[in-house]
Amino acid sequence: MAEIGKDIDKAKAILEKGELVAIPTETVYGLAGNALNQDAVAKIFAVKSRPSFDPLILHTSDLERIHEFVSDIPEPLEKLALAFCPGPLTLLLPKKSLVPDLVTSGLETVAVRVPDHPLTQALLASLSFPLAAPSANPFGYISPTKASHVNDQLGKKIEYILDGGDCQVGVESTIVGMEGDEVIVYRLGGLDLRSIESIVGKVEVMAHSSSDPKSPGMLKSHYAPRKPLILGDLDKLVPVYRSKGENIGVLAFRSVYPELLGQFQIQLSPSGDLTEAAKNLFAAMRALDSMDVSVILSEEVPDVGLGKAINDRLRRAAAQEIEE
Ligand code: TXA
Ligand code: MG
């Protein structure tokens, strides 16, 4: 298994050799390698079993360094960057040629983000290159929000996991780009739409376009547990699946089901707090997935603020087939 620790110098040395390190961010853990080293980037795709058509996010320590890798920042995106970097925001910007095509899967834009986590900030500041880092999970599975999640799945394939504790946001960054003069949100995430719209006005959300995904990672089955997850009204689903004799696991927003007391049920936030629910979401999905249940029943949360990103992940988890 991988070594888990807080040694930034060790992480730096491994990355400088062209090897990979799992890093904490405020959203989810990333599987990081030198973004300017093709071999390191190729290892990321191999370790994740990720198809090469799904591009990676480039992580830098601060906004200034983004300019080394992109040729232009349109004004609305610059405003967003100034307001929310470091933070759970990823910007799609025209790339400079020094960014390898492997990172962007041949696209002319590169996704860039400044993560807000003290350990990773210190690591990035100490490095002479940016880090390419997708979420540190096998392709198609739930993103990790704890060092142990990474170790469980990728521990045999990487040397070191930089342990930054539990991720505070818990869902991936919001991905924003532009088409013509319009600001487009390609992935709902840890920065909510209201915050974005407070800076740039109304935006269009294209996160569900699965026919021609701008972000190939928008494949519907992303974030899925291995067990089937059924999304609907728990008050109806619970009795139906119990009467079928299924071993059910319940992932609820806040309700407790007394008839299931002592059984497999998790509340994302007993107090009904969406920030807390987002933080707990992936760990709860993993926990239920590893329990002795045959099916996971779940419900949507209120579709406001971070609730939109939570519902997006739940819907993707409920869709079992990969859409091409
Ligand atoms: O919060 C996060 O963003 C985490 C942490 C580790 O930073 N990273 C993350 O990476 O979620 P990943 O690789 O799991 O998701 C990145 C998404 C993918 O859906 C990919 O398709 C999209 O970003 N993406 C990357 N570059 C793109 C580009 N040039 N154009 C469109 N989509 C892009
Ligand atoms: Mg991912």
UniProtKB/TrEMBL annotation:
GO molecular function: ATP binding; double-stranded RNA binding; L-threonylcarbamoyladenylate synthase; tRNA binding
Pfam name, any one: Sua5_C
YrdC-like domain: residues covered: 5-191
This protein's GO CC annotations: cytoplasm
PROSITE patterns noted in UniProt: YRDC
Catalysed reactions, as listed in the record: L-threonine + hydrogencarbonate + ATP = L-threonylcarbamoyladenylate + diphosphate + H2O
Chain positions recorded as ATP binding sites: 50, 59, 109, 135, 143, 187, 223
Annotated GO biological process: regulation of translational fidelity; tRNA processing
Keywords assigned by UniProt, alphabetized: ATP-binding, Cytoplasm, Nucleotide-binding, Nucleotidyltransferase, Transferase, tRNA processing
Subcellular location, record wording: Cytoplasm
Binding site for L-threonine: 27, 113, 133, 173
Record-linked InterPro entries: DHBP_synth_RibB-like_a/b_dom (IPR017945), Sua5-like_dom (IPR006070), Sua5/YwlC_C (IPR038385), Sua5_C (IPR005145), T(6)A37_SUA5 (IPR010923), TC-AMP_synthase_SUA5 (IPR050156)
UniProt cross-references to PANTHER family, sorted A to Z: SUA5 (PTHR17490), THREONYLCARBAMOYL-AMP SYNTHASE (PTHR17490:SF16)
Functional note: Required for the formation of a threonylcarbamoyl group on adenosine at position 37 (t(6)A37) in tRNAs that read codons beginning with adenine.
Family: Belongs to the SUA5 family.
Protein name: Threonylcarbamoyl-AMP synthase
Organism: Cecembia lonarensis (strain CCUG 58316 / KCTC 22772 / LW9)
